[in-house]
Amino acid sequence: MDEADILSDRIAILSEGRLISLGSSVFLKNKFGEAFQIFACKKERSMDYTSIITRITTEAMIPIRLTDQTEEELVFSVPITTDSHKLEKFFTSFDSKRDSYLLGEYGISAPTLQEIFVRLSPQREYIVPRRKAGILGKLKRTFQGIQVDTDQQQLMNTHATVYGAASAGSSREVIPIAYEEGTGLNDSII
């Protein structure tokens, strides 16, 4: 995706054989990108940053919200449609108050084509059949096959014994009965 972003004049986003969107990377990012990400490193890892986060979001003159927080950094998102003059004022203020926020270095990330593609593509759940893998799964499937073969052989031997008994002068006659598959009638009447 990065190569397409850098090298292409126009980018087509296809999903399941259908054209979803076509345009330059700037057009796609402006049209479908949701927000800039601001990554700010914490100076004090063990400290609770809840009050600092509240200060940042209330003092900002732009719509900013916390999207992620780890032990090492805070991640904020700012809508991509935010006025550039307001962004400039925010970053000027943020730079001057960064030490009071106990934040170190920070960086800004624009929406990527990968994020846009994932957002635009219909998300489908593909069900993978569950079965044991590896040598244990192969052994289990092999032995299950042997068991089926053994059961079928036993059934054939029983069937032959019944017919053999009938033809050996038994007074009872074996009459096979027709059955419809799925009804459970798979017996013979003796």
Automatic annotation (TrEMBL):
Q: InterPro entries in the record, alphabetically?
A: ABCA (IPR026082)
- List GO molecular-function terms, semicolon-separated: ABC-type transporter activity; lipid transporter activity
Its cellular-component GO annotations read: membrane
Q: Which organism is it from?
A: Strongylus vulgaris
- Official protein name in the record: Uncharacterized protein
